[in-house]
Amino acid sequence: MAEQIDDISLKILKILQERARIPNVDVARKVGLAPSAVLERIRKLESQGFIDGYEVRLNPERFSRSLVAFIILGIRKLTDEKAVGRRLAEIPGVQEVHYITGEDSFLIKIRVADNQELGRFIRDEIASINAVVSTRTSVVLSTYKETAKIPIDE
To answer: Which tens digit of pLDDT belongs to each residue from 38-75?
Structure first.
């Protein structure tokens, strides 16, 4: 971390990662500050870029999106990878887009309903991007951990 933050702010961040909707009064009680002081710290952490935002995690099975796949993409040499990355990020169902090292160029994570939708997705969404020259897909059989939490040491 380029900017230093104190132990109380780190505690606040840990609490918010565990339960983003926790009432401000409860956070204040846990860290030993007044609710107004906690609110001020949270706003400061947001403005300094320590907190990017808040989001709700939906149950993918309730939306027929229980199949998770990782797709590794190769793109043509001399292709504008930023443009391809932005294009991939715009596709509904794509949850993550990573520009990676090695022979391949991108690793994406998708959620779809089933194998038929996965096939359609690769054919219609990925293969339709002119810069894409190869794909390799791994289907997730079981997930033991999935999180966006960042370990915070106090």
So the answer is: 999 999 999 999 999 988 889 999 999 999 999 999 99
Structure token digits, residue 75: 């793109």
Spell out, as residue ranges, where the chain has pLDDT lower than 50: 1-2
Give the pLDDT of residue 1: 43
Domain range 7-47, its CATH number among 3.40.50.1950, 1.10.150.130, 1.20.1740.10, 1.10.10.10: 1.10.10.10
Residue with tokens 């870029």: 49
Give dist(CA 81, CA 48) in Å, integer. 29
Class (C level, CATH) for 60-139 = alpha beta
110-113: long-range pairs with CB below 8 Å, 24+: 110/68, 110/69, 110/70, 110/71, 111/60, 111/65, 111/66, 111/67, 111/68, 112/65, 112/67, 112/69, 113/64, 113/65, 113/66, 113/67
